[in-house]
Amino acid sequence: MIEEEKIERLMYSYDDWNTVAKGKTPNYFFQIEKNGQALHYFGTTHSRDITNPQYGAIREHWQEFLKRGYGTNAVAIVEGGVRTVHESEEVAVEKDQDPGFITFLAAQASVPAFSPEPSREAVCTFVSKKTSEEALDCYYLARIAHAWHGRKEPKPPLERYLIRNAPARFVSEGDEAFSFTEANRIWQKILGRPFDREGIEFLALLINPTKAENPLRDTVRATSTYRNIHIVQEIVRLYKEGKNIFVVYGGAHAILQEPALRELL
């Protein structure tokens, strides 16, 4: 396994963002091909709208990947966990956005999907060197609540969604209740306000690593940096095993990981 410090040095950092992201958003694609083996990487915006032009672009790049013979010994890499193979592209996007879409396409070609997300414990270990556990918990609650707002109806009540996804400190024994009291205490301590589960704009700010006004920016950057390190480690591992790889991940991940992948593959 390649050392985390080496990968972090090779990647772009968020301090580089304003320079390296110019002209590469909202979608960014790059490819690395050597000795008959390929990595194709499509950076997305997360959308539940099948008419978003990115879905046509993903399909075109995927078809080109297959046309050039890379569907043999291949893997599709998806963000946020392996998804269900839905009955159509439209349902896949409505329920699981771009990860669902590429999972659907890959299944049609008998290509397995894999999600290289690190464990929460591993993220906490890395991030604890740069920020507090309570700041990290604030971020996780913001990310979960923001994700809930983005889901289409019918969806579970917010409290049930929090119970299923929030850090253990907020959930009662037996997964019966979410402690809004504890959430309010930590948010008040770190952010100076109670847990704002309905403030969609503030929740969006708290999970954005590129906004200078984000009070959790250092925490979000550290979390995202570790995710990028782990994703690069897994891509390199699969590539060295001889896999052809098609990645669909958020655009910032594609842009920041690219220099490390070009160096290591």
Describe the structure in your own words.
The two termini are 13 Å apart. The chain has 11 helices and 5 strands. The protein folds into 2 domains: 4-118 and 226-264, no CATH class; 120-222, no CATH class. The chain is 52% helix and 11% strand. A hairpin with a 2-residue loop joins strand 1 (28-34) and strand 2 (37-44). With 265 residues, the protein is α/β, with parallel strands linked by helices. It has a 5-stranded mixed sheet, sandwiched between helices. Helix 6 (133-150) crosses helix 8.
Radius of gyration, in angstroms, nearest whole number: 19 Å
What order do the helices and strands follow? Answer: HHEEHEHEHHHHHHEH
Whole-number mean pLDDT: 95
Distance between the termini: 13 Å
Strands of the widest sheet, in order across it, are 1-2-5-3-4
List the helices and strands and how they pair.
Blueprint: H1 4-10, H2 17-20, E1 28-34, E2 37-44, H3 53-67, E3 74-78, H4 89-108, E4 113-114, H5 120-127, H6 133-150, H7 158-165, H8 180-191, H9 200-206, H10 217-240, E5 244-250, H11 251-264
Helix pairs in contact: 1-11, 3-4, 5-10, 6-7, 6-8, 6-9, 10-11
